[in-house]
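The instructor's notes for this session suggest beginning with a concrete chain rather than abstract definitions. Hand out the sequence below and ask the class to guess, before any prediction is shown, which regions might be ordered.
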Amino acid sequence: MSRTNLSYGPVTEQPVGEISRRTFMRRMVGVGVGLLSLEFLGGTLAFLYPNLTGGLGGDISIGSATDIISLFPDWAKGQPFSYPKARLFLVNIPAGEGLVGGKDVNVPNPKGQVLALYRKCPHLGCQIPPLCDKSHWFECLCHGSKYTILGEKRAGPAPRGMDRFPTTVGSDGQYVVSTGKKITGPPIGTATFDNRDTNEIPHCTG
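After discussion, reveal the predicted structure:
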């Protein structure tokens, strides 16, 4: 019986402490996947646990009456102050009542008589624009829902008035809005001081 000599060529030994190219590439891929997983986890946690002190979902300090008027002087005359960071309007209630009644008012410090209205329309979630100059109502451009300066519904398909947030006044006069505690808007038919007929006044929307 004959024997066959098999030759596999010279054997190259890998020096101790060095890794092959394939092993190195495998490890680099593993590191990359790990980093991506950490970024995904961090984004998920940031979504589940949002910043509860600086944006929508937490307590927000808007400033004092003096601060607001320095930015928006018409707030003392009844025009709602828009605060985009929290998607809300801060209404100076006594000045707003004067505006709707056609009076030339100036209320530089309403103290606790303010209302923080959420700008999201209760109908389908469109952002409500600033007060209409013609009607002195909030009028949604999407489907025509209309609300008084206090967010009470007057017309359109919305199921209720505009939602709002609790607001407090600190000892330093700073208005703090709790955007994590949304209050459902008032039911249809609520009329505090503006019950004008929608058909008898001009509007910004049809």
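Then share the key points. Residues 44 and 55 are 18 Å apart (CA to CA). The chain has a mean pLDDT of 85.
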